[in-house]
Structure formats: structure tokens, C-alpha cells
Specification:
Length: 322
């Protein structure tokens, strides 16, 4: 007996380790079904989110006659890229893309800078009438005069047919200011107090102390502002009649409303081509709408993943106090 015990003794820790692992990973049948249910629900949710984009993409590269009849559902058929070549030939599309790119870059930069500075200043207790100005800014989120007073105001400021109409109205955004203010309030006050003791002024505190540690929230604001600028078309619709200032989204809006006549125009332009004579590549209302949609949405889809890692952190920091 003693000899057997002596032989088993060296293997006892290994045996216990295997038993512990077995007990640790032993899952009940109910837990397994719950896990399967959760993964199934999240997979369905992901499918619902992704499928519309996937559907539009496969319809733009499939035979246009099949797409128009709704026969393209899960995979492309008779793949071609003539739709994109034709849409890029539409007059004014390239210039409109430059206008949208310019307003997005300039507008986003100014919005982020303004939101960062005002959000920081509204946390400074020695700011003159701080609470009044903060409430005065926030109240504009809840009250809106309407389109006609807004248009009259913009016209009186000479912002019709003016590129600044895309930039100035969006510079001060109360929601973004609130996000930055909440973020700044969640940071340790000792950082600013120590810098103030060393003689740092307000601008030094802002540029050298707060800006470097505010990258998550500023990236979040940049995402929101860029999407707003890129997707905006109503300001063009109401304020701009100069075709040189048309944005890409406004062009999309017009093309969607005129997709039928536009497809006819493109087909007439390509009537001399043998390839264009086939039903597979003949432009339809559906092909025009879906192709232009992808061209407009693609830049945001490509840029968003770059900032996505800052998104959740920027929103959550400062959301829970105490």
C-alpha cells in the first residue's frame, strides 16, 4: 500500500490540476443554450446591420436588368463595373466631391476646435458669467426658430451662395460642447491646479494640459462633425443656387429624384458602344441610385474604422460621476 501511495504521490498535483480544469470548464446545459441564443441574436443583429450595405454593393456590380427586377439577393450575378465608370462621367460629380471634402475638412476642424475651447472654458470657475453663457448655449438645443427665420438670418448675413454657409453655422454645436465639458470635468483637477501654481495661464492650460489628454473625446467629436458635414444637403438646397458650390450629397439628392431621366441620358451617351447595348450594362433607375449611394457613403465607411477605437472611450469617459 505504501509503495502504491509513493508511486501516485508525484502525479497527484497533475491529477488535481486536470480535475480543477474539468470542473472549471464544466458548463450546464442551460448555460450552453443561453450562450447559443446570445450568439444567434447578435449574429442576426449584425446581419441586419451589414446586409443593406452588402445588398447595395452586389446590386451595383451585377447585371442591371437583373438588379432592376430584384433578382440580386445574396450574391452578384454577371459581375461588371460599368456602373461606376458611367456615374463618374456625370457632369459636376468630381467638383461636388471636392466641395464636400473641403467643407468636411475645414468644418470639422473648426467645430472640433470651437467645441474643445468652449467646453474647456465652461469648466473654469473664474470665467465671467460662466453659468449664464453655458445655459445660453445649451438652450439652443431645445428651441429652434424654424426654417424661414433661419433662412432670413442667413440671407441678412450674406451667407447665401457663400461657402462659409457650410462652415459658420456648425462651428458652435451645443451637444459637442457638452461632451467636451463633461470629459474635462472627469479629469483630475490637480493637473490644472499644479499648472496654475507654476504660473500657467488659461491658454497654456488649454493647449499644453487639456488638449493632449483630450484626444479620445476630440476624436469622437470629429467623427460626429465629419459625418454631419459630409451628409448635409439641406443647407445647399436652401441657400445655394450656384452650381460651383453644390455638394456631393446635393448632387446625390438631385440624381435620386431624376434617376430615370439620368439613366436615359447615360445610355444615349454610350449608345455607340457595343458593350452598352447589352441589358446587363444598360443603366437603370436602380443602378444609378445604388451606384451613387455607394460613391457617397464609401468615404465615411473607410474613415470611420480609423477613429472607432476612440469612439466608445470618448463617449464613456465622464459619463459616470463619482
Amino acid at each position: 500500500m505504501s509503495d502504491n501511495a509513493a508511486e501516485l504521490a508525484p502525479h497527484e498535483p497533475e491529477r488535481r490540476s486536470r480535475l480543477d480544469k474539468k470542473m472549471k470548464f464544466q458548463v450546464s446545459t442551460a448555460d450552453k443554450w443561453i450562450t447559443v441564443l446570445i450568439y444567434t441574436l447578435f449574429s442576426l443583429f449584425a446581419f441586419v446591420c451589414v446586409y443593406p450595405f452588402y445588398s447595395i454593393i452586389i446590386n451595383t456590380i451585377s447585371a442591371n436588368d437583373l438588379s432592376a427586377r430584384g433578382e440580386i439577393v445574396f450574391y452578384p450575378k454577371h459581375i461588371h463595373f460599368q456602373n461606376y465608370l458611367d456615374v463618374f462621367k456625370i457632369p459636376g460629380l468630381g467638383h461636388a466631391a471636392l466641395v464636400s471634402l473641403g467643407r468636411t475638412l475645414i468644418g470639422t476642424s473648426l467645430t472640433v476646435g470651437t467645441s474643445a475651447f468652449l467646453g474647456f472654458m465652461f469648466t473654469q470657475e473664474d470665467m465671467w458669467k460662466r453659468k449664464f453663457w453655458y445655459r445660453f448655449t445649451v438652450i439652443t438645443m431645445f428651441f429652434n426658430a424654424g426654417i424661414i427665420p433661419w433662412y432670413l438670418t442667413m440671407k441678412s448675413l450674406h451667407l447665401t451662395n457663400n461657402f462659409l454657409a457650410y462652415i459658420l453655422p456648425m462651428m458652435v454645436a451645443p451637444f459637442y460642447i457638452i461632451l467636451v465639458k463633461t470629459f474635462v470635468e472627469s479629469t483630475p483637477k490637480e493637473l490644472q491646479q499644479a499648472a496654475s501654481i507654476d504660473g500657467a495661464g488659461v491658454m497654456t492650460l488649454f493647449f499644453k494640459i487639456m488638449l493632449p489628454i483630450s484626444k479620445p473625446i476630440l476624436a469622437t467629436v470629429a467623427i460626429f462633425a465629419a459625418v454631419d458635414q459630409w451628409n448635409s444637403f439641406q443647407d445647399t438646397l436652401l441657400l445655394v443656387t450656384d452650381s460651383n458650390l453644390y455638394s456631393l450629397q446635393f448632387i446625390l439628392y438631385n440624381y435620386i429624384n431624376q434617376a430615370s431621366s439620368l439613366s436615359t441620358m447615360v445610355n444615349l451617351q454610350n449608345a455607340g458602344s457595343t458593350a452598352m447595348a447589352s441589358l446587363a450594362t444598360k443603366q437603370t433607375t436602380t443602378s444609378i441610385r445604388m451606384t451613387v449611394t455607394i460613391i457617397v457613403v464609401a468615404p465615411i465607411l473607410l474613415v470611420y474604422p480609423i477613429f472607432q477605437r476612440f469612439f466608445v472611450k470618448g463617449i464613456m469617459i465622464g459619463a459616470v460621476k463619482g
